[in-house]
């Protein structure tokens, strides 16, 4: 397998494994994540297409290090894999940072987390009633 292709596959598998096996933020189940990926690719296609166009390339790839499959506008297919891995890793790191920066006593949004315990805990939490408040 060509080097660029191999590194792309490793990056994709690594990021997906990081989410599924360790972080478990649940981003792959949210519409927000997939919309953000569509936005990223919508901007990546014209920019990457302009940079890699075979007629007058700005970025030149070693053809022996990639599959040679280019679409659309001469974009190496591996670029999409790296884009997916890079943006997904950034979102995962952001989610992890945001989760750790909040007070652990505040329930997290179960829509953004795949953790069943969070869903159960958030459904059990209710707003305080006037009788629950302490008098000063």
UniProtKB/TrEMBL annotation:
Membrane found in the keyword field: yes
Membrane topology field: Multi-pass membrane protein
Protein name: Lycopene cyclase domain-containing protein
Pathway given in the UniProt record: Carotenoid biosynthesis
Source superkingdom: Bacteria
Lycopene cyclase domain sequence ranges: 6-93
Subcellular location: Membrane
